[in-house]
C-alpha cells in the first residue's frame, strides 16, 4: 500500500485529495490546470506530490444532473477513504457555478472558485459567515474584471450613452445590472450577432441614439464589428469606438478612416521572463494568454497554500458527511481552516501579474494592466498605434492617461439634432455676409446655458412647415412633434406649449417659461393731431361768420359815432374836460372790437348811446362765442381718446364691426375649434335631457329655466372666424390688422401672447388688448423615453435657482434692440399734447413777427418818406416883395417837445409859430433852430 492511502496527492508525508470542476465551454482553464499539474510534477521545489486527480466537467444546464455527478464522485471518495481536501471550482457562471457552490457550501468543503461575479452575484455564497469565508474563496478571472474599464471610461469622460457588445470570450450576464449601476448613462449590453446581422444590429443601436460603442471580444470579433461600422459610416466626430480584448496582437479592420481606442492586456514587467519560460518549457500557450496564466497561477497557488497549511499543522481534519447523510436542518460546519490567509502567504512568483486577495468574495482578482492605444486606420491599414495610457484591473480603478484632453477629443461628441420654429424673440435667423444662417434668441441663449452644464454639440434646423405641431382628425401630427416622433430630431426647442395630447407622443422637460396664453392684437387707435387743432373746434363757416360780424360791427360803430350828434367827435366842446377822450374813427373801431374779445377789454366805450348799444351787443356776442369755444375745445381734445371699443374677448365676441380670427393651423385655432365643439356637445346633452319624453311633469319642470343653460359664445366666435377667413400665417394676420381703417372697424388677430407682445413692442401701430386666456407653460420637448429629459430637467432647475432665466427674459424683452420707443399715446390722465395746441405758439410768433415788420415799416416811413422842410417861399415880413410871409420847415427837425407831434403841424400851428417869432417870443417846446 502506498504511503498516501487516503489521498490522490502526496504533499511531503501528507496525502491530499482534490476535485476539479469546470465548464465544457472553458477549455482554457482545463489546459492551464494540466500545465500546472505538469509543473508540480516536474518541479521538485514545490514539495507537492500527487497520485491521482478527480475531474467533473459540466456540459449541461441541468442542475440535478451535475449535482448527481458531484455526489457520485464525492461519495466514492468517502467510501475509499479519500475525501477531498480541496475543490477547484473553475465553472464560470449560471447553473453549473451555483450548483457547485451549493454543494461545497452545504458540505463545508474548502473551495477555491474562479467564477464570474461579485459578492451579490454568487447567490449560493451570498450570506457566508466569517468562518465560512475563510475556506470558501472566490477570485474573479480577468475576463470578469476587464469589462470594468467601461465604467472607468464612462465616468472619466462623462459619456451619456453606451452600446456594449461582447462575444463568448466574455461573460456579461451579471454585468447587466452592475456594470454602470448608479451612473447616469443610458446603455445597452448585447451579445454580438453573427457576421451577417452585425450591420443590422449596429443600425438598431444607432436608432436608439447610441453613438459610443464598446466592443469586447476576440480580435476577429473586433474586426467584424468595425468592418460593419465602416459599411454603415459610423466613424467620425459623432461616434466613438472602444475595442477591448483579452488577446495579444494588433487591431485590424478595413475602415477607410477611423480612430479607435484599443485596450489589451499586457503582463507585469517582473513576470515577463517567467511567463516566457512557462510558454516554452511547459507549453502554457492556450489563448487568451492572460486567462491561461491566471488559471495556472490560481491552481499552483491553491496547491501551495494547502501544502503550507499541512506543513504547519493548520489543516484540521474533520469528519465528512456524505450526500446521502446530509440533512438540511443540520448544517455541516468546518472550523480552523483559513485557506484565504494561506493563499495570501504563498510566495510563489506570479506568471502574469500579482494576485489581490480581499476579505470578501467578489473583490479578489489578478492585478493585470490594460494598455490603452490610439489606433488610426486609413484605407484598411493601421497607420499608427500610439500608447496613450493604461488601466489596472479592478472595480474602482482609474484610467491613467498621458494627455486627458487629447483622449477626450476621441470620444463621441454628443451631437443632438434640434428642430425649432422661427419665432421672435425666442428663435431668430441671422445671416452673415456669405449668406450663412445662424440662430439667436431667448431659446438659443437658454440652450447655451444648458450646454455649460451638459456638454454636448447640436445641429439646429427649422421644422419643414415651421409649425409647432398639431394633430389632425386621423391622429397624424405635423411640425416639430412629427420630427420628434419619427426620430429625425432629438430635441424640440422653441416656445412650445405643454399640451396633454402632445405629452402622449413626446416628453417635456420642466417648464422654462411662465404661463403664456392667447391674446388679441389690434391696430392702435390713431388720435389725429394738428398744430392748429384749436381752429378745428369751429367749422369754417362759423369762423367766416365771426369774421364778418367783426368787420360789420366795427364798421357800424364807426358810422354811428360819425353821424351821432352825441358822439365825441361831434361834441368836442362838451367833452373837453373829460380825462378820457376817444375819437372812434374806423381804425379805432376795428381795434375796439378786437380787444373787446380779450380779458383786458376794449377800453373807453363810445359816448353816444347808439354806439354803446352796438358795443354791448358785441360784448354779449363775444362772451357767448368765447365760452362756447372754450367748452368745445376741451371736449374736442378729449372725445378722441375715449374710443376704446374692445378691451377683452367678451367685447370682441359681442360686436360685429371688427372681424377676428387666428391664423390657420395655429394652437389658438385649435383652442376655439375645440371650445365650440364642446359647447355643441353640451347643447346636445342638454337637449336630449330636456326633451326626454320619459320625464314626468315634475322632472320636466325642474329643467325649465328662464336663462338658456348652455352658452354659445365660442360657437358664434368660431363661426365668425370662419366667415372672416383665417389668415394663412402670422405675417398675413399682421398685414390684415394693419389694413384696418381704425381700432373700431377692421381686423383683430387672436394668437400666442408672446407673438402679440413682441409685435406690440416692435411696432408703434399695433397694440395688445385684453388679458391672456388658455394659459400654458413653455418647455423643451424630447423624444418619448429619452434620457435627455432628466438631464435637461436638472440643468433647467439649476438655471432657475441661479436666476439665469430671469436675466434671459430681461435681455430679450426689456433690452431687445428691436424694441421701438413709440410716442406716448394720449390718455385721459394726460394733458393736452403739444401736437394739438402747438399752433397757438405759432400764432404768437407770427404776431410778433408781424409786429417787428410793422415797426420796421413805421421807422422807415417816418424817417425817409415823411421828412419835413421849412423854406421861405415869399421872403420875410417887409421883404422886397412886401407880401405876406410864407414859411416852410427847412432842414431836419431836432427833437421836438414831448407834447409836440410833427405829423400834426398844420397851417394854423405854423401861423402861430410865425406870430410868436415876429413878436420876439419863443415858441414853448421848440428849440431855437426850429424857430428860425
From TrEMBL:
Originating organism = Megalurothrips usitatus
- Domain of life of the native organism: Eukaryota
The record lists its disulfide bonds as 764-822
Which Pfam families does the record match to this protein? Lig_chan (PF00060), Lig_chan-Glu_bd (PF10613)
- Span of the secretion signal? 1-18
Which residue positions does UniProt flag as site: Crucial to convey clamshell closure to channel opening? 646
- Show the InterPro entries listed in the entry: Glu/Gly-bd, Iono_Glu_rcpt_met, Ionotropic_Glu_rcpt, Iontro_rcpt_C, Peripla_BP_I
Q: What is its subcellular localisation?
A: Cell membrane
Tell me which residues make up the Ionotropic glutamate receptor L-glutamate and glycine-binding domain: 425-486
Its transmembrane ranges are: 541-560, 616-639, 837-861
- The name under which this protein is listed is Ionotropic receptor 25a
Primary localization = membrane
GO terms (molecular function) for this protein are: ligand-gated monoatomic ion channel activity; signaling receptor activity
Entry annotated with the keyword Metal-binding: no
User: Record's Gene Ontology CC terms?
Assistant: plasma membrane
Membrane topology, as annotated, equals: Multi-pass membrane protein
Family statement? Belongs to the glutamate-gated ion channel (TC 1.A.10.1) family.
